[in-house]
Structure formats: C-alpha cells, structure tokens
C-alpha cells in the first residue's frame, strides 16, 4: 500500500510545486499571456472557419432585421448570465468574473464540447487554492462521490460537473420538446423533405 502511495504522493508533490509557481508573479504573467494566446487562437480558428465559407456569402445570408439580432444576442448571452447568476450565489463572484463564463461559452462552441468547462475547472482550482491530498480519506472539494448534501461552495469541482450534466440534460429535453411541437404543427413534412432518404436507409 505504501509502495503505491509513494509515486502518487511524489507526483502530487511536484504538481503542488507547479501550482505554487503559477501563484508567483512570473506564473501569473505566464497565465495572463497564455490566456491572451488562447483567445487569439480561438479568434483565428473562427476567422479561418468563416473564410472557408466566404465573407461575402456570410454577409449575403445574414439577416438584417433587428429582431433577429435581438434574439441572437439574447440566445448567446443568456446561458453565461444564468450560469454566472447561479455560481455567484455559491462563490460570491463579482461582475468581472462574468468574462470567464463568456469565455467558457465561446470555448465550448468554438473548440469542442466541455472545453470551456475544463477551463473553468482549472480557473476554480486557482481561485479556491485547491490542493489534492492522495492520502486523505475524502476530498469533498474535488467531488469524490460524497453524495448529496455537500454545499457547492465546499465542492466547486463537483458543482461545475453537476451544472454541466444538468445543463446538458435540460438542453436535450428542450430540443425534444421543440421537435415534438414542430411535428404537431406539421413540421414533419419539412423535416422529411430536408433529409436525404439514403441517410435513413
């Protein structure tokens, strides 16, 4: 048992040293630069994706009605605002942290699913100064199966995981409800005409 814990303890000791370095002035500068670089990479990927479609083609098919842009802005910013509203009651967050939730949304949409949640977990580890002790009997702050009744302020990683799962389930349920409503309103004919028959064979 001791032999197994030795390498694990040594690994986390090294990780603790790395975390301490990130808390130093040099580490904070590196984190700031890395954040700017990551934002630049995401922006470059978006520009490349749009360029592959064509800027003129994009402008030609973009709606110009104010109602569309009002709904679009509401759709894009609604989830980050609601997530911030939820987490700020748990963690006593200020307005400045709203940028982190916006970045989380962009990373989930532009990179791959849950990339923003992984970024948020890393941000949480730094903010709450979370250190993992492999010899501890339980680690509620990391969400190691402590079950219900653990407050989100005491288990930030578990809170992010639970919110991501709940949000995914709610989104899928809403999609099914909208699909059912569309079918009831006669949208099944539109769906049938839009799907290639070879796809469902």
Give the helix/strand layout:
Elements: H1 2-22, H2 25-53, H3 55-61, H4 66-91, H5 98-110, H6 115-128, H7 156-184, H8 188-194
Helix pairs in contact: 2-5, 4-5, 5-6, 6-7
Describe what you observe in this structure.
With 201 residues, this protein is mainly α. The protein folds into two domains: 1-62, no CATH class; 65-201, no CATH class. Helix content is 73%, strand content 0%. Helix 2 (25-53) crosses helix 5 (98-110) and helix 5 runs antiparallel to helix 6 (115-128). The chain is globular and about 65 Å long. The N and C termini lie far apart (55 Å).
Concise synopsis of the structure shown:
The chain is an all-alpha fold and 201 residues long. It has helices spanning 2-22, 25-53, 55-61, 66-91, 98-110, 115-128, 156-184, 188-194. The longest helix is centred in the N-terminal third of the chain and has 29 residues, at 25-53.
């Amino acid at each position: 048992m001791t032999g197994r814990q030795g390498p694990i303890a040594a690994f986390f000791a090294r990780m603790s040293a790395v975390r301490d370095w990130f808390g130093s002035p040099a580490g904070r500068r590196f984190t700031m630069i890395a954040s700017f670089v990551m934002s630049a990479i995401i922006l470059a990927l978006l520009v490349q994706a749009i360029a592959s479609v064509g800027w003129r083609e994009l402008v030609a098919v973009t709606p110009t009605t104010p109602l569309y842009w009002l709904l679009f802005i509401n759709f894009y910013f609604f989830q980050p605002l609601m997530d911030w509203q939820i987490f700020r009651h748990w963690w006593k967050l200020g307005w400045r942290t709203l940028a982190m939730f916006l970045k989380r949304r962009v990373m989930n949409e532009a990179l791959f699913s849950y990339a923003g949640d992984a970024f948020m977990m890393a941000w949480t580890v730094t903010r709450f100064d979370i250190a993992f002790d492999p010899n501890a009997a339980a680690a509620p702050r990391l969400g190691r199966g402590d079950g219900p009744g653990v407050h989100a302020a005491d288990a930030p990683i578990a809170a992010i995981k639970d919110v991501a799962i709940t949000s995914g389930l709610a989104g899928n349920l809403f999609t099914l409800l909208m699909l059912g409503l569309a079918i009831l309103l006669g949208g099944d004919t539109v769906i049938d005409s839009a799907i290639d028959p070879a796809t469902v064979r």
